[in-house]
Amino acid sequence: MAKIALQHWSSSHPLREVSEVISLNRWEEIKRNLHFSDNFFIPPGQDGHDKLYKIRPLLDHIRTALLKVPKEEELCVDERIIPFKGRSMLKQYNPKKPHKWGYKVFVLSGLSGFSYDFEIFTGSSDNKILVGEPDLGLSSNVVMRLSRSVPRRVNHVLCFDNWFTSPALQAYLMAEGILSIGTVRPNRLKGCPLPTEKNLKKEGRGAFTEKVGAVDGVSLSATVWFDNKTVTFLSSYVGSQPVGEVVRFFKSEKTKRKIPCPKIVSEYNRTMGGVNKLDSILGLYRIHIRSKKWHLNFFFPPAGLVCCERLVAVAED
């Protein structure tokens, strides 16, 4: 807060767009008394209570606005972290993320980086299935819930990584009229024998094998490709053909060469990454306002929620 005070309300170099509109003391008072829900009506600590009750009205307002925005043809589902190191039962630790401590948010995003829907992770209580929906497992159910607002049978493509992907999920999406593609963990491909990394390594970089099978009457293509290591892909609408080429650097030869690249690989690389782009954009304009109140970190844009009030206004228009 001290840095912001020096920048915005400094006596020598104030930011007049802020200092002439609101005083420092007024801003401190608003920040200290900012609430989104009345604790008296929704007391915490009871079985089945809403863990996000302090910001539920804000979340509902933003999601309602975002769901009105027409969606892009290519969409992806991924997770992002809202940075937070304070005390909170919702805080998660992920060592592979740039911000290792914080709140986990599952986001439905387009290639542009715009978020069309989101779900804040609060635990196993999130795994709610509507009547008529199958239980696809904890991770795949996240995609199923976020895809409820995706229009059916108009060639929308949904992309996700190996934590979400399963044959049952892709078969369900195809039956709903949504195309899908993703990396997949080999142990989820029951009854689909694929070559090991050791065998593909003997053939060299660019080697691949494709297997096609049916799940619940839906044809799926599983392709394992060896680059620096093996990566397995699964899709309901694209396979290995036509095979393209990508340039790779060979360290032993100190030269670059072209290697074969299946179509499913290039298609995944093209459609995945919208949430990462969203994270990149938010990181460029991060507002470093700290608070010990856990719920305020969801509000302060753009460090918090997947959109700010300006995006909500655009969505409502």
Would you write up a description of this structure?
This protein is of the alpha+beta class. The chain has three domains: 1-33, no CATH class; 51-161 and 272-317, no CATH class; 173-263, no CATH class. It has ten helices and eleven strands. The strands form two sheets. Strands 1, 2, 3, 4, 5, 6, 7, 8 and 9 form a nine-stranded mixed beta sheet that branches. Strands 10-11 form a two-stranded antiparallel sheet. A hairpin with a 4-residue loop joins β3 and β4. It is globular and about 70 Å long.
Topology:
Blueprint: H1 2-8, H2 16-19, H3 24-32, H4 56-66, E1 74-83, E2 92-93, E3 101-110, E4 115-120, H5 138-146, E5 157-160, H6 167-175, E6 179-183, H7 197-203, E7 208-215, E8 218-226, E9 230-235, E10 244-250, E11 255-261, H8 263-271, H9 274-284, H10 309-316
Can you describe this structure in just a few lines?
The chain is built from ten helices and eleven strands. With 317 residues, the protein is α+β, with helices and mostly antiparallel strands.
